[in-house]
Predict the structure.
Amino acid sequence: MRLEEIPRHPLALLPTPLHELPRLSAAAGGVRIWIKRDDLTGFALGGNKVRKLEFLLADALRQGADTLLTAGGLQSNHARVTAAAAAAAGLECHLVLSGGRPERLQGNTALDALLGATLHFVPTGPERTARLSALAEELRRAGRKPYVIPIGGSVPVGALGYVLALEEVQEECVRRGLRPEAIVVATSSGGTQGGLEAGKRLVGWDVRIIGVSNDEPAAFLQEASAELATVALALLGRRETVRPEELTVLGEYIGEGYGTPTPASQEALALFAKTEGIILDPTYTAKAAAGLLDLIHREEFRRGQAVLFWHTGGLPPVLPV
């Protein structure tokens, strides 16, 4: 099956921009840094989750669902976009959010409520999956037809969004004569990197993809991304096993864990802002940017070479200066 034959509910404004960052490149020693602006996917404040939700929402509608369910942290971008996708399709939405009930809703949680989602709070991340399953069963007993989306939309159907994205950026690079040495991207649950890895195999593009973890160990994300890439390829009729050791995931930029900035990520966030006016978010893209800048510092890329930074978006909270 060709990718264009798989049901997709358009949400994003595509293609997202691809452009060079000359001032950042100069500040980083002359490596030519390009950026893919998936912070500008154009739906519900953008981000990479929009591409995944196009395929997941289509699958939910195909199955006759009347409710979308998913889970995430309090400031989950995926939860926000799922709530928006449900609203746009006229479906109900329930979100299971970890971190405990806040005193007041702010950031993404405030937007979740504004978009009409029903919010359910659990104290910790490990409790989300059980609560999500129990909630789905409650809704079924009440006569509803829930469609459960795992955290981050990181299932093979969702990963198809980044198979399509890889095709998009490869065509753009060919048109511009751009040959990046690598694509550097934030990774958390494996769906984005898994889709990119499947996409590059599908189109035959020998480009290195470097995932920078913001929370999970590198080995875990190599396994998760490889499995998602393998099954995504199978959905498209391509029988190929993607092995974890074929994937590059860097786990040394996590710091204290999810949602906690590091000194390097704060420096990277400030450098992108002051040189290019581009805002990163501290949870995902700032840590990925810290990884990119460290790779350049370690001379993984040479002056004059091109490297592509994939801005996966996110809603940046107000940060102290």
